[in-house]
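pasting for ref. prot 1 ->
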Amino acid sequence: MAEVPLPTPTNNTVPSTDIRDAVYAGAMLDKVVTGSELKYTDRLGGEHYTVDGMKAEGDKVVEETRQNLIPLSRQYMTLAAAQADIANIPEESATYVRSEDGSSLADEYINNGGTLEATGRRMPSQVYIDSLLSIIQQMQNQSLYRDGVAGFSFPVISADKRVIGFKNDGGVYVADVEIPGTDKIPPRDGPQYISVVKSKNDGRVGIGFNPKNGLTFALLDDDSVAYIADRIGGGGATVPEIRGEWGSRVFNPRHYIGDEYNTASVLDKSSRTFDARQLSDGVQDTLVMAAPLATAIRIALVYGQSNAGLGGSTGRIIDTAPWAFSAWGFAGVNGSSQQGTVHLSPASLTDFVPALDYSAAQSPAICSAYGITQRNAELGRDDPGYIVATAWHGSQPISSFYPNAQSGYWNYENAVTFLQRASAIAVEYGRTAILDVMQWIQGEAGPTGRDKLRHPTRRPVHNDFARVQGRDGAG
């Protein structure tokens, strides 16, 4: 049979029923199966692999894979041995050579134009890992230096080359913030706490943690203080303005179930902290016990006739304390003042209360404490706070104020009781108390006046009070 000539391809869409397209397709199928060419062209101009072409492509992939596996499957003990076998390491392929110094299992090399060059990548050995662990252990046991500055036992270097890490004292340092170790935090008369964030610029502790009760505190700004102050205190009352000239701050206000006080913590201008208490149902909501532990509480004692106890027939009325936590008296005796006709019981003096909470008028002792505090503020001194007390007896001679006076004159005994209880209660707050001011107010004149008081009364009282406080009373 005569061979039909290969028709000219058409541009008919697929599938085509044109006999010319069928003849052309049959011829191309024959080329795919039996032809020796690697590719053929269909009637629309598309190029495809023949069977021989697909076999050739498969052989190419297998060869490339083999060439890449050769360097990985070969073990070269030396670099010279690997270089001698460069013909079996394809261009830009990597191979590994055993480390000569034993610091790693193998070092990586790449074929660069027929020459093996080290890439810097290594397979670390256990020996190398152990040596790194040893170095890290040494870092933890000795100081490190950066720019000549010592003190970092375990630093971390940030991207901008700053040191962030643990210090030798147990603290942590990060740019512009230094958190001291526990043993570097000075003792406070409030609960012991660990600073969490401390400013490197001014040394103030912004956030702290109390390990005894698990509570934290933050140094608040004025707006936060005002918000808290509006929400503690009895009957909707607020914490008094205590920032004033002292620049104090209040934080961690709290109220314990069953406690008659609200409690807050105070930070004064010297960055000392202490607990302050607020009598919930007092006439005035006044913070008390707000003075530093470093100094003893001072006692201001007034001794004498009726003017000493009353300050006149009606007394001085003060509605607002000029210093909200400077003058305290005793709970259990109104005005912290006792006439000598009554023998004062020590058990009745249970605690300190703000002097302003008394319903009676303010005594000369209270007013004196306010005046002393004002003077301390003017001189820039830190005020330790004053406990005020008055032992008085109207229209009585000086002899009634001597020790062992006749029955019914308890002036001296009451004064001793005030001082003894001041020292005892102060200890409950972790404080000490010392007699700082003693005033004598006497209305009558005559030969039994101050000349006799100067020796027979002042010295025994002074000596007895000193002995109560464990000090030498001679003098």
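and prot 2 ->
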Amino acid sequence: MVNHDHVEIIDHLPVLLKEIVQALALEVGNTVVDATAGRGGHAQAIAKVIGSQGTLVLLDRDQHNLVFASERIRS
């Protein structure tokens, strides 16, 4: 069993962020599913493009990452 109580959280810089957002050809109001949300780096950039009229669904097998990513997007 792994104890995560004392794990240092290190922020992750998303790889190829600009290129991925551009390749997705996003528009305001789109619905997007990020099935590997991780710490939310790409999701944050996607959310900025699709705006409040869009829908962004985050999935990740690590619940802690989902909480972090959700908070990151809201900020």
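The chain has a mean pLDDT of 90.
Residues 30-74 form one domain.
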